[in-house]
Amino acid sequence: MAVGLGDVDWPGQLVYVIKGTRIRQAVPASPNAFRYFGSYLASDGLPTPAQPIWRTRRGESRPLTYWAMRRILQRANDKLGTDWTLHDARHTAATRMAGDDRLTLAEVQTILRHAHLDTTGRYLTARVEDMHDKLQEHYTRPRPQRTYATGYNPGDVRAVFGG
């Protein structure tokens, strides 16, 4: 089922979609997504309430189906010498969100509409660039000073823990 104007909550910045569960659910979208969306509607005009929002721009205007979008990507891949798919775009977004310290895995799960947290957890992959930065932080951070509860004999502490 295609997304129509009634599926967009502009003030709440939500888009209602139907995924595998066949239940209509709200998905948050970024302010940039709504800016691009507004620009798209300004240039192409508002669809009727019965029409889907996304339309083809090549040839006669028709609903932008999965197959039409797939064909657009095929043409782009042919020109660029790449092999991207719609799922690649979703995978990239999921990996970036899962790696963001400001989003919890449960929040990413909700955004992606995964039924199980295990599915979302697959996107928790460490990138080499991030690991380099983290290791640099680790090695340049001052070592924490050990402290022990008062009342222990310093000689006993050294004997047990070294020092």
Describe the structure.
- The protein is mainly alpha-helical and 163 residues long.
- The chain has helices at residues 31-44, 66-80, 86-98, 105-112, 117-121, 128-140, 154-161, and strands at 8-9, 14-18, 24-28.
- Strands 1-2-3 form a 3-stranded antiparallel sheet, covered by helices on one side.
- A hairpin with a 5-residue loop joins β2 and β3.
- The chain is elongated and about 85 Å long.
- The model has no long low-confidence stretch (mean pLDDT 88).
What's the helix and strand layout?
Blueprint: E1 8-9, E2 14-18, E3 24-28, H1 31-44, H2 66-80, H3 86-98, H4 105-112, H5 117-121, H6 128-140, H7 154-161
Antiparallel strand pairs: 1-2, 2-3
In short:
The protein is mainly α. The protein has 7 helices and 3 strands.
Global morphology: elongated
**Continuous helix count:** 7
Catalogue the unreliable spans.
none
Strand order of the largest sheet: 1-2-3
How much beta, percentage-wise? 5-15%
Q: Fraction of residues in helices? A: 40-55%
Number of strands: 3
CA-atom Rg in angstroms: 25 Å
- Mean residue pLDDT: 88
Order of helices and strands: EEEHHHHHHH
Structural class comes to: mainly alpha
**Distance N terminus to C terminus?**
68 Å
**Main beta sheet strand tally, sense and closure:** 3 strands, antiparallel
